[in-house]
Amino acid sequence: MSEQQHTDDSTDSTSEKLVELAKRRGYFFQSSGAYGGVGGFYTFGPQGAALKGHVEDAWRDRFAVAEGNMEIDAPTIMPEPVFEASGHLDGFDDMLVECPDCGESHRADHIVEDNTMYEDAESLEIPEVEEVIAEYELVCPSCGGGLAGQAVEDFNLMFATNIGPGDSDPGYLRPETAQGIFVEFPRLKEYARNQLPFGVTQIGRAYRNEISPRRSIIRTREFTQAELEYFIDPEVDEPDLSSVEDVEVTLYPASEQNKDDGEAFETTIGEAVDENIITDPWVAYFLGVAKPWYEAVGVDMDRFRYRQHLAGERAHYASDCWDAESEIDGNWIEMAGFAHRGNYDLSKHAEHSGDRFTIFRQYDEPQTVERATVDPDMSYLGPEFGGDAQAVVGKLEDLAARDREAFDGDTVEFELEGETHEIPVEKTGFSVDEETIAGEHITPHVVEPSFGVDRLVYTVLHHAYREDEVDGEDRTFLELEPEVAPTFVGVFPLQSDDELEAQADEIVEDLREAGLSVTYDDSGNIGRRYRRQDEVGTPFCVTVDYETIEEDETTVTVRERDTTDQKRLPVDELAETLSAIRAGDLEFEEL
Asked: Aminoacyl-transfer RNA synthetases class-II family profile domain: from which residue to which, for each copy (predicted)?
């Protein structure tokens, strides 16, 4: 059982201020407040919905449009057989422990992580977690009651529902958007002209009935995922790493995590692949694509790393998995997972549905192969096995495909429902024939970058939070990237004046026609209006003053959020200039 240093999970003053700001300025707040609120559900207000939408648009531009991948929008409710096939019904669990004193339920691994030196208690087995709780004499976070000796149990995280009235079919709210892509593969491959590789993206809601949701929108019961499922032929398809090989990344591989003094280190994607630190080149490719994208939307690269999953926490079907993590309050939180899922998902859905989840791989040249087949005498099997005759045919076909030597004698043996049966080989119609084939059906492998949008939004806000002093007064502002800021420009008439207000209205209309998000504010003194926009992260403010309407050349004052520097700009050039700044083609300092 490995031990690792765990940092304190207490909320620092920055987070407290950020959550208060988020509620006050309309970023996010707990839902259903009029009814006392409900844990794990949050509403994104006007600013938060806009920021979240901009982040999603930026993700779509990079991972769907720029990569040439298609996008779908699947239902959030799916029938039970989907989750039987995917394994979620049996294995999508968290560890629950119930306090004997107050009856509150908690995630046992979180209690261990918050109060001991164990950082990845989720990877421990239940008996080990029970041992740690007893050894450290851990207590209930709600009432302080002792938890030693209490049973730790698996708790399935899926929300159940019924589809249709009366004798309705059971269904579940999806715990990940990925299954909506996997189950539609037989049709999606047709849209891709049955050619590998191809990718399918989806941005949408997912639901997990968390035992103990916490830390505002970091761990909730309803959240948004942005996922890419990239389907490849593992024997043929290789990524072109030339575009990402020089991308510098901070890596925290499993080998370092298992050391007492292990640390994350700087390297490049190319070096990490060459040195076999990142073992899967497709995972390496998407790590290289994602890193500059994270930086572009406002994640602080000094507080960002990729951490490799330890063997105990990696999904059984994943050959390798890395998380994108951001530092918040002294802790590292997962924002995305990058995994090579193999052919597990498609194989399982093929097995359970009976549909074909394969792609035909064309050979360069036709090949002649020997193929063992059976053509059983049904006039013999029918009387001999009755209703099981067709099952016998299937058993014989499987046996011929994997062990043709079983047919070398006069009789052949096979098992059916736990019993051994024997029939004459001559009744099986067994033969081995040469066949010329042009290709074969393969089950593609899947590489999956899966992004948590809500956690990314929180990270962007937390990493953008600033406090300084302007003109002797304390100021709070969000240093958001222009690409994702909810509002790009605020327009203010300096005072209540019909002429100033009319000119400001015209400017607002012109900027909106140029595709910029604009807010108009004429309430309070100009300094107070600046402070309001600083707090919501608006990059620029335009003030219409008396010089605007009195001078021969109509100009306005444009104020930049971060430095509070101001410049006079012509009104007729304003939309073009601000659009160029937002697109990254011009810097404010260059004006």
From this structure: 16-482
